[in-house]
């Protein structure tokens, strides 16, 4: 076995570009694994189980004498504000977004100044995974515990993703980012899908061995938290020798490294909001992303509520649909990545938003109790879900100034998965006023239309040039 000295000599003998490519590929492989790790929580907990489960717990608290599965007309009191149990999960997500919007931009500024951002990634993921695992304790009428744990896990997920997305700019050159981002999303869907398949078997086979449905749900929530924490070890260790970027690169003098990570971060943040006006294309992209991503996240996060409470489908049918969506999304992400290589990520994302608009419109007309129609809709969602999200991430990375990746990605991440703001708020308000999830879901069409119109106005090449980045061959 060659020694470390031999390997160093071998690397020195290679052409500079060859060594760089080998290092980049190794770091990319490690980077992919965080998509695998956190997707278990995003899929099993945030998208499928926690919404209906928290609603069941909240219904039990508000209407203790009412059978499980029936809509509750009473209200919960949340800090003195009456909240319908069916809207609690949507409102929790909305409040989490407001908190995230205040915290994540600070996290991004600190991450940009960190010599070892992978350690920050590990800390945020560890706390989030602990909160996700603790959801096994939510039972009976303990909806308050569920709300707190959702908020902690979601904020930590968003914080870890700020760091993670910022690292993308370090491990992949401009021409490779669409491919690398798409592969990360695809691997995430595989990981999330595998755990979801195991939980699907548990929910269906559990009663045969004496495990009740609610107990199976709580075990599934625990498994998602443990999966998130354990697999995060791979990227944290694999990125431990990530080449350091000069911290002063692209930073204003008053945010120099010697001022310290946190103190300098606040100085850096002040300048970010001032300087953002100097990047009009980046700002326009963020505005477009705010709308269309809120639509995507609300559809994903509310689909289980729509399927179980509006269409009257069983938990197993909804879980099976999400399982199919996970594996369809693997192919969708890879296909979108290939299409983007030919016609550009900007055009590909715009096409994906047209499909999303059709999906939401069709969802309104899905008949109650018809599982095949819900499954077909899920397959269509899977085809566009991974591709639009992966390419949006790589597109934005081209518009971020060098040396400010995590800071700018914190603005992006505040609107990212699990932290939708306007979408969940609208969804919850429409349901509370109309008691109809159909009207709630169709209201989301506006987000895709507005987001698509704004994205169509983004001049990507001008934005890349203004950010001081190298433009890929095809945008």
Q: Largest sheet, order of strands side by side?
A: 1-2
SSE series: HHEEHHHHHHHHHHHHHHHH
Q: How much of the sequence is in beta strands?
A: under 5%
The name of the CATH topology is Growth Hormone, Chain: A
* Share of helical residues: over 70%
Overall structural domain count: 1
What is the β-strand count? 2
Label the CATH architecture: Up-down Bundle
Instruction: Give me the oligomer status.
Output: single chain
The largest sheet, given as strand count, sense and whether it forms a barrel, is: 2 strands, antiparallel
- Alpha carbon gap, first and last residue: 44 Å
The SS-based structural class is mainly alpha
Shape label: globular
CATH superfamily: MFS general substrate transporter like domains
Mean pLDDT: 82
Number of helices: 18
- Report the C-alpha radius of gyration, rounded: 22 Å
What is the CATH class designation?
Mainly Alpha
Give the uncertain stretches in residue-range form. 1-23, 246-260
């Amino acid at each position: 076995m060659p020694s470390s000295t031999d390997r160093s000599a071998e690397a020195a003998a290679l052409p500079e570009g060859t060594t760089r490519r080998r290092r980049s590929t190794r770091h990319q492989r490690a980077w992919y694994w965080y998509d695998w790790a956190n997707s278990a929580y995003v899929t099993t907990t945030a998208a499928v189980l926690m919404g209906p489960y928290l609603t069941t717990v909240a219904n039990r608290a508000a209407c203790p004498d009412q059978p499980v599965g029936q809509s509750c007309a009473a209200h919960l009191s949340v800090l003195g504000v009456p909240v319908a149990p069916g809207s609690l999960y949507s409102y929790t997500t909305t409040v989490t977004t407001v908190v995230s919007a205040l915290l994540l931009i600070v996290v991004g500024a600190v991450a940009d100044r960190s010599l070892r951002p992978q350690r920050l990634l590990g800390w945020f993921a560890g706390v989030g995974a602990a909160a996700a695992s603790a959801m096994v304790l939510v039972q009976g009428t303990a909806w308050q515990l569920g709300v707190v744990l959702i908020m902690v896990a979601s904020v930590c997920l968003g914080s870890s993703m700020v760091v993670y997305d910022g690292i993308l700019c370090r491990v992949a050159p401009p021409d490779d980012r669409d491919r690398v981002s798409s592969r990360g999303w695809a691997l995430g869907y595989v990981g999330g899908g595998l755990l979801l398949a195991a939980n699907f078997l548990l929910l269906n086979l559990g009663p045969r061995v004496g495990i009740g449905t609610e107990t199976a749900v709580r075990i599934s929530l625990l498994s998602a938290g443990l999966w998130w924490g354990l697999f995060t070890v791979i990227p944290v260790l694999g990125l431990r020798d990530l080449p350091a970027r000069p911290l002063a690169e692209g930073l204003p003098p008053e945010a120099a490294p010697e001022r310290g990570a946190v103190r300098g971060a606040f100085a850096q943040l002040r300048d970010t909001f001032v300087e953002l006006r100097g990047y009009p294309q980046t700002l326009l992209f963020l505005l477009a992303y705010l709308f269309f991503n809120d639509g995507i996240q609300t559809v994903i996060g509310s689909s289980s509520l729509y399927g179980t409470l509006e269409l009257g489908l069983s938990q197993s049918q909804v879980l099976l649909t999400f399982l199919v969506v996970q594996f369809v999304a693997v192919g969708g992400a890879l296909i979108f990545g290939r299409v983007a290589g030919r016609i550009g990520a900007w055009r590909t994302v715009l096409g994906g938003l047209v499909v999303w608009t059709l999906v939401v419109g069709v969802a309104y007309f899905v008949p109650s109790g018809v599982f095949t129609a819900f499954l077909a809709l899920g397959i269509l969602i899977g085809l566009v879900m991974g591709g639009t999200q992966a390419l949006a991430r790589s597109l934005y990375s081209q518009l971020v100034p060098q040396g400010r990746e995590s800071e700018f990605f914190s603005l992006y991440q505040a609107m990212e998965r699990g932290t939708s703001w306007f979408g969940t708020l609208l969804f919850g308000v429409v349901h509370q006023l109309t008691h109809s999830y159909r009207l709630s879901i169709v209201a989301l069409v506006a987000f895709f239309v507005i987001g698509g119109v704004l994205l169509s106005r983004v001049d990507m090449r001008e934005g890349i040039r203004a950010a001081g980045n190298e433009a890929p061959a095809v945008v």
